[in-house]
Specification:
Number of domains: 1
Strand content: 15-25%
Radius of gyration: 17 Å
Bound molecules: guanosine-5'-diphosphate, magnesium ion
CATH topology: Spore Coat Polysaccharide Biosynthesis Protein SpsA, Chain A
Low-confidence stretches: none
Number of strands: 9
CATH class: Alpha Beta
Oligomer: single chain
Length: about 240
């Protein structure tokens, strides 16, 4: 049965020449030994890198039959995910950050949440009681405050860790929610979850083990402003539609 289920695992990559090869080797070896689904593809999406990320991606594509790669000129994680997911023919699409901050052990549960448990979206969470997280105090605090804000502003009881770079979704969400998501960068994930939840899709949050990469490349102040603008725009849109 598992042979018929197609799964796409997308790795958005922006200037990741330092870690990409090592991490894709590690991911492929993990999947070979620990993943019950054999019809999967790992898709590296280089978005706007100015280093050797794409050349390394091509090398990995040659090395592994399960790996394909693609170059986009535009930056932005949301942009990369939306493009690849909309074109995907898989039953389940997912993504994980190139730094493999999320422990790979969680991949089977992420995918099974959709295929076996029947959820529409599965989300890795660093904020559940059994999550194990190594993060700077600043990032931990910002993430905690951000998720409380989102819950209160949009009236959700259950939202947990909207921004985690580890998610999977089914075809229904791709067809019905993804085209409506406007943000192309970091607010993309939050927007996807809010629109999905407002439209009655079932979301499961699973605890993960997370280790921050030593030096984030996220520009924290820029991201905060982007999130505030994203929240404002989405709230206005939802109010005008009275969803
Ligand atoms: N900084 C940055 N990362 C991007 C972009 N597009 C895709 N990414 C990827 O997004 C993922 C998360 O980035 P990362 O720096 O690990 O974020 P952090 O874990 O929140 O500190 C990585 O796989 C990046 O390669 C982009 O435009 N800027
Ligand atoms: Mg990271």
């Amino acid at each position: 049965m598992n042979e018929n289920i197609k799964i796409d695992i997308v790795i958005p990559a922006y200037n990741e020449e330092q870690i990409l090869e090592k991490n894709v080797d590690k991911l492929i070896s993990f999947l070979k030994d620990n993943f019950g689904y054999k019809n999967y593809k790992v898709i590296i999406v280089d978005n706007g890198s100015t280093d050797n990320t794409f050349a390394i991606s091509q090398k990995l594509e040659k090395r592994y039959s399960k790996v394909t790669c693609l170059h986009l000129n535009q930056k932005g994680r949301g942009n990369a995910l939306k493009k690849v997911w909309l074109e995907s023919e898989a039953d389940v699409v997912s993504y994980m950050d190139a730094d493999l901050s999320t422990d790979l052990e969680a991949i089977p549960e992420l995918v099974n949440s959709i295929i076996i448990d029947g959820y529409d979206i599965a989300v890795g969470s660093r904020l559940l009681p059994t999550s194990r997280v190594k993060r700077s105090l600043l990032r931990k605090s910002l993430s905690y405050i951000y998720n409380i804000l989102i819950k209160n502003i949009f009236g959700f009881k259950e939202l947990s860790d909207a921004q985690c770079g580890f998610k999977a979704l089914n075809k229904k969400v791709i067809k019905n929610v993804l085209p409506e998501v406007k943000n192309q960068n970091w607010f993309f994930d939050t927007e996807l979850l809010i629109l999905a939840q407002k439209n009655g899709f079932k979301i499961k949050y699973i605890p993960i083990n997370w280790k921050d990469r030593p030096k984030t490349r996220v520009k924290i102040m820029d991201t905060i402003f982007e999130d505030i603008a994203g929240i404002w725009n989405l709230k206005r849109l939802l109010n005008s539609q009275k969803i």
